[in-house]
Amino acid sequence: MAHLILYSKPGCHLCEGLQEKLESLTAQGFTLEVRDITQQPEWQQAYEYDVPVLYLVVEGQTLGVPRFSPRLSAAEIERRLQRLALERSH
């Protein structure tokens, strides 16, 4: 099972759209943790101008995920994440 970490902030429409798509992937074996950058100063400093930022954790390794176009479907996001997870597990 792969774990997703999404750095987000209130009022970020790109974040909300991505979160909605990622939440639909939990049935496909992904777990999702959403981190509000306004809750931790170090998160806010690191990601203030970059949210949404997504990480994939596979077998203890944390991988930065390239930013997805907001136009991608949840199915395409799932395919890309599965590919990344598979590459890391081998």
Outline the structure in words.
The chain contains three helices and four strands. The chain is of the alpha+beta class and 90 residues long. The chain has one domain: 3-Layer(aba) Sandwich (Glutaredoxin), CATH 3.40.30.10. Strands 2-1-3-4 form a four-stranded mixed β-sheet, covered by helices on one side. Strand 1, helix 1 and strand 2 form a beta-alpha-beta unit. It is globular. The mean pLDDT is 93.
Descriptive key words:
alpha+beta, Glutaredoxin, four-stranded mixed sheet, 90 residues
| Main sheet record | 4 strands, mixed
Structural class: alpha+beta
| Count of domain modules | 1
Find the count of extended strands (DSSP E, 2+ residues).
4
Low-confidence stretches: none
Computed over alpha carbons, the radius of gyration is: 13 Å
Instruction: Return the CATH architecture.
Output: 3-Layer(aba) Sandwich
- Measured distance between first and last alpha carbons: 14 Å
Please give the share of residues in helix.
25-40%
CATH class: Alpha Beta
Architecture blueprint of SSEs:
Elements: E1 2-8, H1 13-23, E2 30-36, H2 41-47, E3 53-58, E4 61-64, H3 74-89
Parallel strand pairs: 1-2
Antiparallel strand pairs: 1-3, 3-4
Outline:
This is Thioredoxin family protein. The protein has 90 residues and is an alpha+beta fold.
